[in-house]
Specification:
Layout lengths: L2 E2 L13 H10 L3 H11 L4 E2 H10 L1 H8 L5
Antiparallel strand pairs: 1-2
Helix pairs in contact: 1-3
Length: about 70
């Protein structure tokens, strides 16, 4: 179980439903903001699975805090 302390969404290799969320964050130019917010919310870090689950299952919340309009 690897703990990710320094989040870099551009280099994170997500899987399943997280892939679409990652692409949206990057395409909207919000990658740096996402990295900062997640690092602040989880200062102890996250496992790759925890980060992937947030990206997959909490995409609406992510889009809201990043100011991305959902289609």
């Amino acid at each position: 179980m690897k703990i990710t302390n320094d989040i870099n969404i551009k280099e994170f290799r997500g899987w399943s439903g997280a892939v679409d969320t990652i692409e949206t964050i990057i395409n909207e130019g919000k990658a740096d903001l996402f990295d900062c917010i997640i690092s602040e919310l989880y200062p102890e870090g996250l496992t790759n699975t925890q980060l992937n689950d947030i990206l997959w299952h909490d995409s609406s919340w992510i889009y809201e805090i990043l100011g991305i309009e959902e289609e």
